[in-house]
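Re: the 157-residue chain
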Amino acid sequence: MTRLGDLERAVMDVLWDVVPGTSDGVTVREVADALDGRELAYTTVMTVLDRLAGKGMVQREREGRAWRYRPAASREAHIAQLMLDALDLGGSRDAALVRFARSVTGTEAEVLRAALGSEAGLTGPGSTGGDTGGADALTDRLDRPAGRRPAGEAAER
């Protein structure tokens, strides 16, 4: 997935914040108006939206002489894809996942535990059954109390 530049990110933030999933999208003028503190030319915003469409980040639909734009995916889907792309940068995916799991807060660990449990078809705390798809190291970390590490293990932030 392509990383976004600062202006592309600002435009995507407008689309993610302004355009509900069921909306027909917004025009270049509406995006430019939402970026009011940046004093950007209409043509600059139009160019950014055109490039985002070329990258597959936005979908556009013709409405008369203008285009209406909406995000191709949710902000959460984009961030998840960036995280997966980071895992592909090299080295061991397992080691990167374990390091990540050790760096999350207790609340974040609970969110991950719940997501892993629902993916594995688990119904409640302490349930077993279902294949976690190799996530044992992650769930081991998540099963430790928040902020506690095994003896001799340093915090890795």
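The longest strand covers residues 58-63.
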